[in-house]
Amino acid sequence: MLKIWSMKKEQQKDENSAEGNGAAAPKKKKVTAAQLRAQKDLSELSLGTTMSTEFPDPDNILSFVLYVEPDEGMYKGGRFSFTFNITPSFPHEPPKVQCREKIYHPNIDLEGKVCLNILREDWKPVLDLNAVIVGLQFLFLEPNASDPLNKEAAEDLRNNREGFKRNVKIAMGGGSVRGESYKRVLI
Amino acid sequence: MKVKIKRWNGVATWRWDIPEDDVCGICQVHFDGTCPTCKYPGDDCSLLSGKCGHNFHMHCILEWIKQDSAKGQCPMCRQRFEWTEQPNDMSMDTTHAPPEI
Hints:
The complex is a heterodimer of chains A (187) and B (101).
Chain A: H1 4-20, H2 33-43, E1 51-54, E2 63-68, E3 80-85, E4 96-99, H3 129-141, H4 151-159, H5 161-172, E5 176-177, E6 180-181
Antiparallel strand pairs in A: 1-2, 2-3, 3-4, 5-6
Chain B: E1 10-16, E2 47-49, E3 55-57, H1 58-65, E4 90-96
Antiparallel strand pairs in B: 1-4, 2-3
């Protein structure tokens, strides 16, 4: 009878003792669960033609920038970027996502905080980064006035859709809306 | 021709008794592999089946379910996650290596 269980135990013992006298064993960087999962998600990312990613530190896949250039809807022609920070507890916690540009949008506040259900209360670990970027894309196509972070923008969208559209154009062009000045994000 | 068996090696493989190409929804690793914190698959890193029919690595689902934000729900279907009493059995699939002649 083959002794696989005792063989396994011995192997484990060897590894433990190797870890014990750390200097002798070659140092191997431990890949965390978050890194493994992020790697998988990133390899399956479908960015399409309107999105791209950038890794400021190529050795750190847990922190990157996503560029979104909507090709339809009210934000067409703009270019927005989001920082993604994946915490060590990913995928049990959602990635932290923030918009880098000041934007006139009911669901993104002037500091760039994003109101998207799957980034907060509706996150679950079976969701992946693709779900998040689809969610962001959706925010540009269908800004949603019912759950606002920027109350003024939401008011405009609810009460005067055409006026809201105009304001989006003005803000993206680098003008001022309701006393707030915006940087030009048109491409 | 007379064949005399001098020595033979028994070889066995095992896999979890669930569809072959299934991955754990939480870590996205194949069920026959381990969760990301374990080294050895098998009894050390077992699976947990929910009454809703969704399976996960035990370590993955316990990590999730202990969080407040999980609200005790299955991450796949958001039904209350209750695990079945009977854990998945390992199905043994035994094959013998050809005897050495």
